[in-house]
Amino acid sequence: MSMNRKLAPEGEWGWMVVLASFVFHFFSLGTIKALGVFVPQLGAAFDISDGEVGIVCGIAFGLKAILGPVWATAALKWNAREITAIGGFLTAIGFIGAGWAVSTLQLAFCLALTGIGFGLPSVALLVIIRDYFDIRFSLATGIAYTGSAIGMIVLPSFVEILITSYGWRSAIILLGALCFNICAVRNIRST
Q1: Which H, E and C letters describe the chain, residue by residue?
Q2: Residue 23 lies in a domain
């Protein structure tokens, strides 16, 4: 441990940070998995094949991983809470824009924005969790990342219900509205 860094409080308010990170991961990988439910509707709406829909979605969310070194640098250089809020905003706006897209290019751009939005908080949330945990960092991170698995189980079924009830455009807009919850991480107080 660095001599310049004070000891983390080992929990306390940190468990709320873990909960916020859980919610982020729930939406992050859950919505990527849920995009599979949109494939037939997107293919029909934009007159493209399932493979082309997959490419649009894959490239867009590939940005999350490909730009990982950029996200890591940003998380260490700037305020991690602000970066997480900006990421949540971009994610939500990307999904909402995708609901209004009228061309494949617009859809790709909006989903790319969503991928960038999901990428920004991915490392920043680890930095925030590190502020609260030293000894229990692995446990806290494990709990936070459990949100990914639960999101991948729950969100596709939820999205299918939304599509059946409201149509694909309204469903993706509602998904974007739900992703605004990621912005709430900005309000988590510092140690």
Answers
A1: CCCCCCCCCCCCCHHHHHHHHHHHHHHHHHHHHHHHHHHHHHHHHHCCCHHHHHHHHHHHHHHHHHCHHHHHHHHHHCCHHHHHHHHHHHHHHHHHHHHHCCCHHHHHHHHHHHHHHHHHHHHHHHHHHHHHCCCCHHHHHHHHHHHHHHHHHHHHHHHHHHHHHHCHHHHHHHHHHHHHHHHHHHHCCCC
A2: no
